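Need tokens for this chain, all 555 residues.
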Amino acid sequence: SHSITVSGGANGTVAADKASAKEGEEITLTVTPSTSDSKDYVVESLVAQYSAGGETNAISLSFDKAGGTVKFAMPDGDVSVTATFAERTYSIALADGITGGSITGFRASGNYPGQKVLLNVKPATGYKLASKDKISITGATVELDDFYCFTMPKADITIGAEFDSYSGEAYGILNNYGYIPGKVSVDQRTGLMPGATVVITIIPPQNQKIAKVEVTDNQNNKVCDVSDEHVFIMPEAEIRNNAVALHVEYESTVNHNIYMRTSLGSYFINDVPEGSLISKDIPDGCVIDKIIASRVDNVQATSERGTNICLMHQDDTEYWFWVADGDMLVEVDFKAKVKAKPDTIGDIVLKDGTAVARENRGYLSESQKNDAIAVIFYDGKAEFKWLASKFLGSCVLGVGLAEGYGPWCGDYLGSDNGGYIKFNSTAAHPIYIGEGRIYGGHYYYANGELIHDVQYYGAYNTCVYGATYPQVRFDGLLRGTNTFATVKNSVQKIEQMYAFNFCDGYKDQAGSRVKGTAYETGWYLPTLPELAELLRSVSYLEDVRTTYLDVAGVI
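Here are the structure tokens for all 555 residues:
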């Protein structure tokens, strides 16, 4: 028998039902993320490996991010299993049917419990938001402050709003920033309706910090309150010329340090004055997955999260915040930008049918890696210089991630002639076709030589000498979608057709990742034209599997 070693690390556990087992025995892993009143965790990765013949080999595992049980067959070698866990984040959605205004300033996903969220509310012309009570938040109990800011709960939430009709004039902000030291601006200066969020951007003079911000009328009378984040809500009030003014005062300050801990690299921003505006754009090809800012004392690279600070703006591609009265830790995780569907060679197909473009593969998050199911190797855009391209025409083909090893078919299939053919050391990969959700797979010799006999030479294709020749003749076939049905009608022992059965039952194969998705059925063995196109991209596909998706095996 061989040993089984498990490691759960921090924020979760993983346990095996056996400490050792013989080859072929079923092993059950139980993966349990940690939970608490303030935060929950999810499974980020689950990696199993075994040693045999001096080499380390991967075991394909499919897992639920919420945890649970995972089964695999014990290989011929000692097994080690490692699980990692990530803090669970939550979504914010807008309710359907909101009319008369907009609500922005939040991210649809990747929101941490405890983070501060500022809603940017803008009533449309002819509408107003009478009070914060007109904003509804469902999914959890959430307290909204007077500036439409709230603390993210440990739940997915939906935000709604009721905008009332308004017949009065719009408000504006006087363009009188010239005599205020530093730089002052607002996100919208004219056309403001009552209840609108106004975000003030202030860049203090050198060695100064913001001491006071007021919104006044033209007689310097206070009109409304301003939050610590320099936000105010446009009131419905009698103001001369329907315009307000800003009054800003400064005082001396000390500088602070910010540690930017990001999935694209971490670094310090040193000697930044309190009250300074920090604005960050992100590289093309990726989007923000999660972000949270907090105040910490004497920030270090190893500092833990402190008191949460409200980000002034955040969306998928940029964010900004004010420097607090102390050092700060800003944590940002990125993920690859996705497109609606795969359509280009090199696209990485995800479980939900979206895809990551080849050039963005370096930004894949752990979650996206775990959701990957296929890689596109043919897109129908070729110049038709290859014979295979002429056969395939306009379609999108991709290779799946799971693979199986074994003979092409059984030693004996009950044919009249008693003949048999057996191919050892073969590997199989299903193929995904983007349009119409058609799938496929392939088998070939371990040394890379195609088993072209199986696709070309009539009855020998199915390893059955005695089958009726026309029934199993596949030469000239362009798509492999119906080959398995043909084989079923021609073979007495279909269970011994291992290659075909592998693809037909692909959803249940270890590492396929398609069970429970819209892509669990329809997998098949491809034809020669499809295989020819696959081999043109084989080096890139292998690089994606091993380097970017951490999937072991050789295509």
